[in-house]
Specification:
It comes from Streptomyces dengpaensis. By secondary structure, this protein is an all-alpha fold. The chain has helices at about 20-25, 45-50, 55-70, 75-85, 90-115, 120-140, 145-155, 165-175, 180-210, 215-235, 255-285, 290-310, 315-330, 335-340, 345-355, 360-375, 380-405, 410-415, 415-440.
């Protein structure tokens, strides 16, 4: 009888000499993941992280911020110091106006020296001379010198270099050919300006009130000199000096006169807003809160500037500039409505916070146009002229705003910033139409730029 075939026991087959138990374990062991599986792509760094990854950028930014903070301290410190010792706010205001006028004359010449001889060689001695002027002012106030010495001493501080302009010039040099990164850098610099002018007055008032009236001026001078020394020491990021200037004055560059006129009108907005807000707070019996209310406006501008820099710029700056000023004009109606309809300082503070959000985008775009229209061998001079226009506008706006408050009403004072911003919008529209006419023959031109020498 034939025998039935033998059954194979499950899992008892020996393969390649491997014992059954080991073979079972190997066949049921989880296999490692294939190395060829796609990995999650690394997160793209943000625009500001990429910006400060530029070699040397963090070092010169730290020095510049230290040097820039006193710009918001000096005027408040000097007013407290002079008015407290001489008992006259009129004298303090006249001394401030003299220093402002001296700065408007001297600052462009200082910037021209920066372009020709380099930032380090010019900024350090210019800052040292301005520091001596500040010390002389303190001594004249402290020891009761004649009033005319106060004017002379404060006028000597006009040699203070435009540290914000020098920082923007470094970014323009380091990021040449990368307009998106330069847009982010200009936005950061404007936010830094707002931050310094927001914290500076508070810091100055704290020093003068806690220690002695001269403390704000002395500490501000020490910070300015320290920051400029740190900034100037970063030679690897310094633009090379342009010893042979072949281009004409930035004032003669096409489009620059109208552009500087918009800065003058924009400065009038800032000057009037400051005076009218102080008067409104005083009328409500909360004059001490005026600084906090104005700081909210600067805070809104600072936040908007950082957000504006994180977004890619849409369209040419000539087209964006009128849009930014139009937004600023529209938002400036909020403080006018808050003061006229509610009479509440709290409502005004909220309105100024929102209204400030259009300031930084407007200034960033305006500075971008200044950089584009200015010959590159006179870049510091061009940006200093823009700052000079702002200072002149602030002086005019302060005077007109004070007159409206005194002769009409405090609430009506907020109408002047709206009018000044409307004038800036008309000037910006004329500049944009001129630029578009000049660009029409060659499509795709992004604006006049002078080659590096």
């Amino acid at each position: 009888m034939p025998q039935p075939p033998a059954r194979k026991a499950p899992f008892l087959t020996v393969t390649n000499g491997t014992p059954p138990a080991v073979d079972f374990a190997l066949r049921n062991q989880p296999q490692p993941k294939s190395q060829s599986q796609p990995r999650t792509p690394p997160r793209t760094p943000g625009p500001y992280r990429r910006l400060f990854a530029t070699p040397g950028a963090r070092a010169f930014t730290v020095g510049n911020l230290i040097a820039r903070l006193p710009m918001g301290m000096f005027s408040v410190s000097a007013i407290i110091m002079i008015a407290g010792s001489r008992g006259s706010y009129a004298l303090a205001g006249a001394v401030m106006a003299t220093g402002l006028a001296a700065t408007a004359v001297v600052a462009p010449w200082t910037a021209r020296l920066v372009d020709r001889h380099g930032q380090a060689r010019t900024a350090v001695p210019a800052t040292a001379f301005a520091l001596l002027g500040g010390i002389a002012l303190v001594l004249c106030v402290r020891f009761g010198a004649p009033d005319w010495t106060l004017f002379a001493a404060y006028a000597a501080t006009a040699t203070t270099p435009n540290t914000g302009g020098m920082s923007r010039a470094r970014w323009a040099y380091l990021l040449d050919g990368d307009p998106a990164a330069l847009h982010t850098a200009n936005s950061f610099e404007q936010a830094a300006d707002e931050l310094c002018f927001m914290l500076g007055p508070v810091f100055a008032a704290l020093l003068c009130g806690t220690f002695f009236p001269e403390a704000g001026t002395l500490v501000g001078g020490a910070l300015m000199m320290t920051g400029v020394l740190i900034f100037a020491a970063q030679r690897s990021t310094e633009p090379p000096p342009q010893r042979r200037t072949t281009s004409g004055s930035p004032l003669r560059a096409p489009g620059m006169p109208a552009l500087l006129a918009t800065f003058l009108a924009t400065g009038a907005v800032f000057g009037a807003m400051e005076v009218v807000t102080i008067a409104f707070a005083d009328e409500q019996g909360h004059k001490s809160a005026a600084g906090v209310v104005l700081a909210l406006q600067a805070a809104g501008s600072c936040a908007a500037g950082l957000l504006y820099g994180a977004r890619a710029s849409a369209g040419p700056a000539e087209r964006r500039y009128p849009l930014c000023i139009a937004a600023m004009t529209a938002l400036l109606t909020l403080p006018l409505l808050a003061a006229g309809l509610t009479g509440s300082l709290l409502a005004l503070a909220g309105a100024l916070l929102v209204a400030g959000m259009a300031t930084a985008p407007t200034m960033v775009t305006g500075m971008s146009l200044v950089q584009r229209h200015t010959p590159e061998d006179r870049l510091n001079e061009g940006m200093t002229l823009a700052v000079t226009g702002l200072l002149g506008g602030i002086a005019c706006g302060s005077a007109v705003g004070g007159w409206v408050v005194e002769h009409v009403s405090t609430a009506a004072g907020y109408g002047f910033p709206v009018a000044a911003s409307t004038l800036a919008l008309a000037l910006a529209l004329s500049t944009a139409s001129t630029a578009s006419t000049r660009r029409r023959p060659s499509a795709g031109n992004s604006g006049p730029r002078c080659p590096r020498t």
